[in-house]
Amino acid sequence: MGDTTMMDSSQQLYEDLTFTIIPNGLSDERVRQVTDSITANGGSVVSFDHLNGHVEDIVKITHIVSTTSDFPDYYQALDSFIHVIKPSWVDDCLRVSKMKNPRQYSPDPALFMSEFVVCCADDIPDGDKEAIEGGVLAMGGQVAHNLSKLVTHLVALDLDNTRCQLVLSKRLRIPIVLPHWFDDCLKVGRRIPESPYTLPDPEILKVDAGTIPPVRPSQQIRDATDPAPTHEPKIPTPPVQLERTRSIRAFEGKKVMLADDLALTDNLRGVISGIVRASQGEVTNNADEADMYVCNYRDGEGYVKASQANKDVGNLGWIYYMIAHGTWTNPMRRMLHYPRPRDGVPEFKDFRISISSYTGEARVYLENLVKATGAEFTKTFRQDNTHLITAHKQSEKCEAAQEWGIEVVNHLWIEESYAKCKKQELSGQRYTHFPPRTNLGAVLGQTEIDRTATEKLFFSKSRKPKPVKAAQPVPVPGSSGPQRVSSDPVARSSPLAEKGRRTKTLTEAVTPAARRTVDGKENETPGTTGSRGAKDRAISKLHDAAPDIAQFEKEMKRRGGVTHGGRREKDAEADNRTKKVKGRDSTASKRSFEEVEAEDESATEDELQAEPANKSKNKKAKKDKLTPIKFRMLVSKDDRWTNNAEKEANDKKHLREIGLFINEDYKNVNLLCAPKVVRTKKFVAALADAPTLVSTSYLDYALKHNKLPPAEKHLLRDPAFEETQGFNLEESLERAKQNNHHLLKNWTIFCTETVAGGFDTYKEIIVANGGECLRWAGRPTSITSAKRTVDAAAGEVSQNQEEDEGDVLYLISEPHKREFNLWEKFRDMAKKHDMVPRIVRTEWLLFVAMAQYVHFEKEWELNEDIVNVAK
């Protein structure tokens, strides 16, 4: 599938090919070895002049051997259709006596699977196997159809297959991973750690896996966190310099210009100039003769000319990096090594951004990146924030953001927005996806500046430089007074050829990490059919509102709704965690708006000490201004705001001012409001929290009289529903308090994809009650939970679980013949785990979740005979 150019028997393998070898990262011995392999098989090698740093007569070269894409001629090579390959390509071609696919040996970081050789186990269905293999190949990896010592990853659903047993018996060092890992890698476009997906005990399938562990700082942000350092550069020790004698020298034979907009003190300018000269370089004040142009901003005549001439253009942080490491690096490779747009990213001007779950260098890097976009960075997280950037969703800030309607995004959003100097839309899942059990800090800083977008916006030759206003005097560290920044004309910015484009493949390999989509209105109940098409929510920021309601999520009316009227799917960590509620008063606020102002566990001591002295006064002023939240309410099936986003925003603002917060999170409410008892996703899931049920007359009264009425005067009553369903809602709520979200604890319940209402509807209901829900597509699945304890006499089981047989495995399905094949495979899988299979209608789960006790009626069971008779 990847290689296949065969040689004639009389032709040597590398005949008519010309190579050059980039020395960065290669020892002298390895360079000689690769050179000998090429020349012995008919190829020729042009020596690389590491002092000059460029490939001589690059148009005559057919292949460039390099361990990295970080060398000056990389993008010119791509533009000239020259293959850039790792040294292993030379070895592997000789081993099989044929030319391998160069793309699968590319050092381009965009092809992040280039080091993979993937083999699928026998239990992977053909369709999924093709999707996995296609995704691996698209991202530069290789596929093996048979297990061999070259395989780096074996993909399997469990260990009960021949290839997995062979790996285990031979003690091969090959990780056996779930297919979900490839899916999540492609969703974020990065290689994430394999460990949470590794058999035999993958963390992503554990309900109580604990907190996500921290990660080491990403090497991509090392010495690349500050675009404008004010301290003197660190000079490397002699041994470090000696280790890089074959590296591309940073300044040797180069002329460097330090632009005026750096606002350097005379002393600092002298130190940097001295280091450049000591490294066999020169410092010049002539932009036309400079090889390297160093500046702060993407404007000015010097910046434009240097960029249009394809010279190296970077900032002071870039110069410091090359001084510290003694070798050249592309300034566009690291986000904060390239000059900043003076006015930031246009759409970020009104954003207030905070971060969570990042520490040390990662936190400093993101803080500086936020400021470089032109947004306001806030050390503390409050309700007037617009975005929260987080490495995972297991944090207090993430819970608060969801409660307050604030966008929660991963760092890829701000990195790629800055790289293109344009806000990236959140309509897709790329920026809102958080792989389960993964700390995305591990892949921080892997985004590069987009050359094409930067050139178009800042230094296109078709654009004329525009004059820039004279800058205001700015204080310069170490100087006696302010200096005036350069007022050179503006233009447009930076050289760098476009990277290899990523290709979207691997069609939705099933993953426990649910895809995040937008939530919507509910029009139908589970068990009915209807459209589940999702429309975009409009998000309106209320500029004049109080901090607690700075942003509300607007929902547009959808057809087909239920539960199926739009689905907000949580990330896997939130799905697999049950929130503990201790000593909860049904009328008490669960969180004050000030609770999350304190720094989370990622705050450093310095940041805490940097809090303003008048913080307590500011808090008091806010508290005096805004009524504390008395109740959090979830509203279901009330159409008062349908197709009227402005009225919705005004009403919610008004309600918040009198102490009522309309919440969209069914796991964090103490009032549940509806015109009648309904079986929508929100209503049914929220019952697990034992809220007080009120009718919509409660809202009518509050909006009309500008005060909150006693809940007991507006209780929701529905005797007809209770009689039909066979349980009392008041008793259900009492049982919900007893269950404390643990009704289905240790349960693994399966659900088919085509079930009416949608898989994700029932998943959220099950998770709200402490269970785990897995999608059933007929594939072998490993069940990690043991049989449930049923010894009620020993006091180990709640009275609400007394009817649990303990060894019954449930599959929620529909009475259709198309499900028959899935049923048969489900029975086989259950028996394999010594469990009793039971296939049921959706009615079973709805009853259990609403009545809040385990129960089963024969009428809810499904089998082939029932369906055939009905037909």
Write the layout of secondary structure elements.
Layout: E1 5-6, E2 18-21, H1 28-39, E3 44-46, E4 63-65, H2 74-79, E5 83-85, H3 87-96, E6 98-99, E7 117-120, H4 126-138, E8 142-143, E9 153-155, H5 162-169, E10 176-177, H6 180-188, H7 238-243, E11 255-258, H8 266-278, E12 282-283, E13 292-294, H9 301-308, E14 312-314, H10 316-325, E15 352-356, H11 360-373, E16 376-377, E17 387-390, H12 396-404, E18 407-409, H13 411-420, H14 451-458, E19 474-475, E20 482-483, E21 539-541, E22 551-553, H15 572-576, H16 605-609, H17 615-625, E23 631-635, H18 645-657, E24 660-662, E25 671-673, H19 681-686, E26 692-694, H20 697-705, H21 719-725, H22 729-739, E27 748-752, H23 759-768, E28 772-776, E29 808-812, H24 820-832, E30 836-840, H25 842-851, H26 864-870
Parallel strand pairs: 2-3, 2-4, 4-5, 7-8, 7-9, 9-10, 11-12, 11-13, 13-14, 15-16, 15-17, 17-18, 23-24, 23-25, 25-26, 27-28, 27-29, 29-30
Antiparallel strand pairs: 1-6, 19-20, 21-22
Structure write-up:
With about 850 residues, the chain is an alpha/beta fold. Among the domains are: about 5-105, 3-Layer(aba) Sandwich (Rossmann fold); about 230-340 and about 465-485, Rossmann fold, CATH 3.40.50.10190; about 540-565 and about 580-595 and about 630-715, Rossmann fold (3-Layer(aba) Sandwich); about 740-870, BRCT domain (Rossmann fold, 3-Layer(aba) Sandwich). Helix 11 packs across helix 13 (about 410-420). One of its GO terms (cellular component) is Cul8-RING ubiquitin ligase complex.
